[in-house]
């Protein structure tokens, strides 16, 4: 399968090949340009080093952002800007490797610890997406491609820093749900939880209006932290519209995953989002998904379930089984979450 980088660099490419032509759904939501439609901003420093009152207000704001949007930006998060930029640069260098070098990391199975490829799941995608990817499992066991030079060290440091940030955010979210301290860490076995880094490469597209970087989907796992190279393209569904996410420089864009929706018994929802492409610039985004351990059965927190007034909305399923189901099929909205709905 030809990579999208190879295709985009083909001499004289002026149109999108039919296999990449994405037919828009006539019932799709409109795109909003209203500046008031911007996702909430969370000042992380107040969660970790603020006064008790500031922390309490921040936890409330965090819960509100999860409930109203399912997406938020995090500033003052403590991850050095230099580390974020170094990883984006290193991922760009990975995608610039020769095609045969990248093939060494192609992977065969959706749960392989290192896997690079194109589209989403090219073997089942009816329409191919304008995207190359690299997926790496970085926790509980750390993996890394051996190329380019220095990639491993940059990835290891970034993964450690962002892991701490994600765990602190999950603790704040857990408290906002009224769960006891440490609930998420214990119930989801986060010490051996899965952490996957997914780097996405969206090169310029000659007809961006007919191609799609990634279709409308929600993420597996509990939380996703995203950074990018300053080129916008992320859209989030909110109140019947698609919202362009214009993120603050060096902030993380964070979203709720399907498994946090399950744990919260539907109070916090994983939100549909997609990646658009443009004809001028290459967009690189790096998403890190934080999930339970693969053998954890994820079901609604018992404290959030009342058989009479708030019955369980989801049945339990092992995270590893859910992950395999989602990654093996074509990406289709929240179809996997519907599979475990009661």
From TrEMBL:
Q: Write out the biased-composition intervals (Polar residues).
A: 15-26
Q: Does the keyword Methyltransferase apply?
A: no
Q: Keywords of this protein's UniProt record, alphabetized?
A: Iron, Metal-binding, Oxidoreductase, Vitamin C
Molecular function terms, GO-annotated? L-ascorbic acid binding; metal ion binding; oxidoreductase activity
Q: Where is the signal peptide?
A: none
InterPro entries for this protein:
DIOX_N, IPNS-like_FE2OG_OXY, IPNS-like_sf, Oxoglu/Fe-dep_dioxygenase_dom, Plant_2OG-oxidoreductases
Q: Where is this region: Disordered?
A: 15-35
List residues of the Fe2OG dioxygenase domain: 192-292
Gene3D superfamilies the record matches: B-lactam Antibiotic, Isopenicillin N Synthase, Chain
Asked whether the UniProt record includes Iron among its keywords, one would answer yes
One Pfam family cited in the UniProt record for this chain = DIOX_N
To which protein family does this belong? Belongs to the iron/ascorbate-dependent oxidoreductase family.
Name of this chain's protein: Protein DMR6-LIKE OXYGENASE 2-like isoform X2
Q: Which organism is it from?
A: Juglans regia
């Amino acid at each position: 399968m030809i990579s999208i980088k190879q295709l985009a660099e083909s001499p004289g490419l002026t149109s999108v090949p039919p296999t990449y032509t994405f037919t828009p759904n006539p019932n799709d939501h409109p795109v909003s340009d209203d500046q008031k439609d911007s996702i909430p901003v969370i000042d992380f420093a107040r969660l970790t080093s603020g006064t008790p009152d500031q922390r309490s207000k921040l936890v409330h704001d965090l819960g509100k952002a999860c409930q109203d949007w399912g997406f938020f930006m995090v500033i003052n998060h403590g991850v050095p800007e230099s580390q974020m930029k170094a990883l984006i640069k290193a991922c760009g260098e990975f995608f610039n490797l020769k095609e045969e070098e990248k093939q060494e990391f192609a992977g065969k199975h959706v749960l392989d610890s290192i896997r690079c490829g194109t589209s989403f799941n090219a073997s089942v995608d009816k329409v191919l997406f304008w995207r190359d990817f690299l997926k790496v499992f970085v926790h509980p066991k750390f993996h890394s491609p051996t190329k380019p030079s220095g990639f491993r060290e940059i990835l290891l440091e970034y993964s450690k820093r962002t892991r701490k940030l994600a765990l602190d955010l999950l603790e704040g979210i857990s408290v906002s749900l009224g769960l006891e301290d440490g609930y998420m860490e214990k119930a989801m076995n986060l010490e051996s939880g899965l952490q996957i880094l997914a780097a996405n490469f969206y090169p310029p597209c000659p007809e961006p209006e007919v191609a799609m970087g990634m279709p409308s989907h929600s993420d597996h796992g509990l939380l996703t932290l995203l950074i990018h190279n300053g080129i916008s393209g992320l859209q989030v569904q909110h109140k019947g519209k698609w919202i362009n996410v214009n993120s603050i420089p060096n902030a993380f864009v964070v979203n709720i995953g399907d498994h946090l929706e399950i744990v919260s018994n539907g109070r916090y929802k994983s939100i549909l989002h997609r990646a658009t492409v443009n004809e001028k610039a290459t967009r690189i985004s790096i998403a890190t998904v934080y999930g339970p351990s693969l053998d954890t059965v994820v079901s609604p927190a018992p404290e959030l379930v009342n058989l009479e007034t708030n019955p369980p909305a989801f049945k339990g399923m092992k995270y590893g089984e859910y992950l395999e189901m989602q990654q093996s099929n074509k990406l289709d909205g929240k179809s996997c979450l519907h599979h475990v709905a009661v």
